[in-house]
Structure formats: structure tokens, C-alpha cells
Design goal:
Length: about 140
């Protein structure tokens, strides 16, 4: 992988895989205050027509962004981020789910000391975030 101070357009700067379990969802619910039962009860998810218990969207976004933070080594170097939620992450009761993230340099402005990193975030072979981007300081 490329170091944060020396990236070029198109470089893959980071890759990560995150295993999300039902326990992860309960912990995130406690931290975020989002106790919507579609995130931990199969019967409720089924009753509202969902294919299963869903990971919180903001948890998915946080994991995707964490990939870049880990590469940078300093969360203060993230200056902005955005994404569209395109598909849910279904968290199976026993096996959980694996979210995969690939981060690539999409814009690099060495004079300004900034870059935009585009994220490909997938679960089960399908993109779960669209237009997922992180802006960073290179300094």
C-alpha cells in the first residue's frame, strides 16, 4: 500500500475486511442510541419485509471510513466524507456478515496538500455504499 504522504491518482491506499456480528450490532446500538429492533430481532425484520437483521447504516459508513483512518494513522486528517446507502448489510445470526472496503486515490492536490479517496464498500459481492468518498489532508 501507499504511504499517506506519497499517493498518486489511482493508487489503492488501503483495503480492509470487517466482520460484523449480532454482538457488534448490540454494541453499536448502545453507543449510538439507535435501538431500532430491525437491527437485532429477526421477527421484527421479517414483519416489516426485510430479508433479515440489518447492520446500522452509520456503522457501515463508520467501518468504511475507519479503513482510511487506519491508513492515515490520524483521524484528524479526515476533513470530510459522504456516501449513499444503496443496499443493506444483512447480519446472519451465526455467521454475521463481512464488509469489504477498497480505498483508492481519486483526486490528489499536492499544492493544497489534500486528496479525495473513493471507497468501494461491498457485502456479499454487492456494493452497499454508493458515491462513498473521504477527503483527507496529506500533511
Amino acid at each position: 500500500m501507499t504511504s499517506p504522504g506519497r499517493i498518486m491518482l489511482g493508487d489503492t491506499v488501503a483495503k480492509s475486511r470487517y466482520h460484523v456480528t449480532r454482538e457488534s450490532l448490540v454494541r453499536y446500538a448502545g453507543a449510538s442510541g439507535d435501538f431500532n429492533s430491525i437491527h437485532y430481532r429477526d421477527d421484527v425484520a421479517d414483519a416489516v419485509g426485510l430479508p433479515g437483521v440489518l447492520a446500522h447504516g452509520m456503522l457501515t459508513l463508520g467501518l468504511a471510513t475507519q479503513c482510511v483512518v487506519d491508513w492515515l494513522g490520524d483521524p484528524a486528517r479526515v476533513t470530510g466524507y459522504r456516501a449513499r446507502f444503496t443496499k443493506p448489510v444483512i447480519v446472519a445470526p451465526d455467521d454475521g456478515a463481512v464488509v469489504e472496503v477498497v480505498a483508492k486515490a481519486a483526486q490528489v492536490d499536492e499544492a493544497a496538500g489534500t486528496a479525495r479517496i473513493d471507497l468501494t464498500v461491498t457485502f456479499d459481492g454487492h456494493a452497499v455504499l454508493g458515491k462513498s468518498q473521504v477527503w483527507i489532508s496529506l500533511r
